[in-house]
Amino acid sequence: MTTNQWVIPFYKKQFEWLRDAEAGMASYLQSDADKIEEQIGGKFETMLDIGAGVGSIARTLDARGISMTTLELVPELVEAARRRSPKSIDIHEGDFYTYEFSKPFDVVSYFDGFGIGSDDDQLKLLERMKSWVTDEGSLLIDIYHPHYWRTIAAGQKMKIDDAERIYSFDETESRMVDSWWHKENPDEIVTQSLRCYTVDEISSLCEKAGLTITAIFPGGAMDFDNWTYVETAPLSACLSYRIKLKKK
């Protein structure tokens, strides 16, 4: 199975096995929307969110008056987003590498999912995202940090709703590996694998795409000793960090 062949089966099963992921998340989503507006640092009117899932953050920002557009590959997630979202959100189903938009956006984002393919794939995606943003616009992308997945998360196992999962790390390819199975069918395993980048590595890739990192925002981390989530961890210890990008 090539890297990209796992994408639809994994996210489809994840969606099936998790219960209502938005239940009890209203406060978190408002906090995340606050962060997005703060990270952009100025007024913006239009935003494209790719890998949007069921559209949770799009609905939160739409309620704040942002004209939201989403792009998602997995049909089941797109269908759920359309059921739950107001007509004001422009929801698209398609592949990041082939889909076309007729006009650029003030902000283009990719949260919690960058790194699906090879470095060449990521470079192509960055170039496409650059073409989707206005000349003065910004991109926000979450990047997985290799140190966390190599030294903190690898080997950790947990249960979530009807699923169980275990983390590992592919040292050769610098990829986090996240394997899931239904608690009643442990032999049916689906796995996601995402490329992790140091700041220097992602900076170099962005430069090749004609983009410059203008800000870095460390994300959170799981404290596996106490089984608590720390909202903001040091850059060296966070599971992912968010980069803000501008056209060169």
3D structure, described in words:
The chain has 248 residues and is α/β, with parallel strands linked by helices. It has a domain at 3-144 and 198-219 and 240-247: Rossmann fold (3-Layer(aba) Sandwich). Helices cover 30% and strands 35% of the residues. The chain is built from 7 helices and 13 strands. The protein has helices at 7-17, 26-40, 56-62, 75-84, 119-132, 146-153, 199-208; strands spanning 46-50, 67-72, 90-93, 105-110, 133-144, 157-160, 163-170, 175-182, 185-195, 211-218, 221-223, 228-230, 240-247. The strands form 3 sheets. A 7-stranded mixed beta sheet has the order 3-2-1-4-5-13-10, sandwiched between helices. Helix 2 (26-40) crosses helix 3 (56-62). The relative contact order is 0.14.
